[in-house]
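Incident review: delayed structure delivery

Summary: a single-chain prediction request sat in the queue longer than the usual turnaround. Root cause was a stuck worker, restarted by the on-call engineer. No data loss occurred. The affected request and its eventual output are reproduced below so the record is complete for anyone auditing the incident later.

Affected input:
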Amino acid sequence: MPNRLAQESSPYLLQHAENPVDWYPWGQEAFDKARKEDKPILLSIGYSSCHWCHVMAHESFENPEIAKIMNDNFVNIKVDREERPDIDAIYMEAVQAMTGQAGWPLNVFLTPDGKPFFGGTYFPPEDRVGMPGFKRLLLWLSEVYHTRRQEIEQSASQIAQQLLQISRAELKSHDISLEILESACQSLKSSFDHQYGGFGTAPKFPQPMTVEYLLQSFIRAQQKEYLDMVTLTLVRMSLGGIHDHLGGGFHRYSVDRTWLIPHFEKMLYDQALIARAYLHAWQVTHNSWYLKVVNRTLQYVLKDMTSSQGGFYSAQDADSEGEEGKYYLWSLDEIKRVLNEREVELVCEHYGVTASGNFEGKNILHIAKSIEDLARDHNMDLSEVEKIIDEASMKLLHYRDQRTPPAKDTKVVTSWNALMSTTLAEAGFAMNNPEYIAASQRNAQFLLDNLVVDGLLHHTYSDSKPKVPGFLEDYAALSNSLITLYEITSDGKWLESARRFVQDMIDSFWKEEIGTFSDTSIKHSDIFLQPRNLYDNATPSGNSLACMALLRLAVIFDRQDYREIASRVVRGLALVMSKHPTAFGHMLCVANTLLSPSVEIVILGDKHSVNTEALLEVIRQTYIPNKILISTTEEEASRSDLPLLQGRTLRNNKPTAFVCRNYACSMPVNEPDELREQLTLQVHAP
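Output delivered after worker restart:
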């Protein structure tokens, strides 16, 4: 018989609707029951594509004996961390404080007023080497709760007070300087893997925001070693098994140092951030391989992760048919069944396929030998080898499509959608690809039409309903994506929406007394504190996204107050960023933007003119991290109140480019070569 979760819209919660556990969603009903029956609360947090969440669900939550213990002794609450990142953040920090580590599934035991007193991650059903069994743990905690109540309540209150103090602490301000940025680069060098790229050993995460920061540092400091770190990382990642060479996109992380063996889930935010890093690397190096990776990643999202309305799905699971990675693995016999003899020979060399395999007797496809090396070794034309590999890869993909695919979490998350919309818009502009720009616009309109109700932005959308008031990350990410769309399409409606959301963001989330934004607002009244995440983890923090939006609008609207807010947040994190740069990848990009002169570019001219297009083409091919671009006609500029458009007229009655640095402008130019020269001077000027 289904439990209460059957009434929920979250795909993750619905996965647990048939459990024998008497699950409650997060809400007042569960807390009232705990108080009335004098029971502790078991709060279990996970997400739909979490492999170990599935394992624990199968071993414990589907086990009638364990479920009975849970139902008899606890009030059980299930939370989708992607739907309620605020709840996840509070109790994740609590478990880290109690145990020194945390992750998912996150299982936390609370008093009836929501204060944590014990927690952990995955527990096996029975005792296992070094790990207590969940059944024994439940019985012990129930006994302790009732026999040592005063001790439990005192401990829970102390932990809650500690969390409150952390969330309300004012950051110690420090001058932000180029030395801070350079110190961060040196810290990254010390942890960089000079053989395989990336940072640390294993498991190894892509960390695209850190890659972005190094790319920006190369532009700023012209230190080739920073670019070398970027290119080695991106090349090695794209060759490894973490990259889906048939269907496109990237898996969550690699369990090994060489990027070969992934944890097979695919997250929307990874596709957005990784594709953007490859796009910017292409603009710097013009390496066509990077562009191929971008296209394959974005095509995967548009084909497999996009709803009919234009929203982007959250994730694709690691498991299919109960096995992790089964959908992506190949035996040599399967390859031989699908391909002809000539294709088998080349494909097996190219993708490293062997009879013994490289993962549990099967093969994770990776690029073991390049197309160029194949052509040389087989004395074939490069184009011929490329054609054979491309056609064979399509055959393998069609064959793979017949397998049972991993489940998708079709929930739409505003902030993650905005990250993808930004990447699509930037890629569409850089490649002059209308399909990507249209997908970005469609997504933005979908978010504005479906996730804004009575002026209030919401965090998720599933089962045709918006849910949960928006968090800081939603307002900030959406604002940035709308600013990008304005730059690329010149449609003022995107800019006006961005300005409105940024003001709402300041009004609802800015905390003047502590000098940062909180992640929640008064709309999130069902938690005992307002969490404040300052770290850029798998996604940019709400604070770093907010600061970037403020700095961009500060230039467009000449708003010094916006710049001051962003500056205050960055100053509060200056020292810790320089020492722990991988935890602040996007905030370091914000700091770089704050310290570097803004480059304002105005293109005046008819949108359909080949001369206007020639000027825009120069900008498409150039990576300028701190640029603001406005492309419009002379007539539209004359009617605009934007400071950057005041007094702009055509030069020689031709499409004209204006390049400015902190509002100090060079001579207007008509020719692409002149524009290219000005951009080079402005970007690299001290």
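Verification: The longest strand covers residues 456-462.
Action items: add queue-age alerting; document worker restart procedure.
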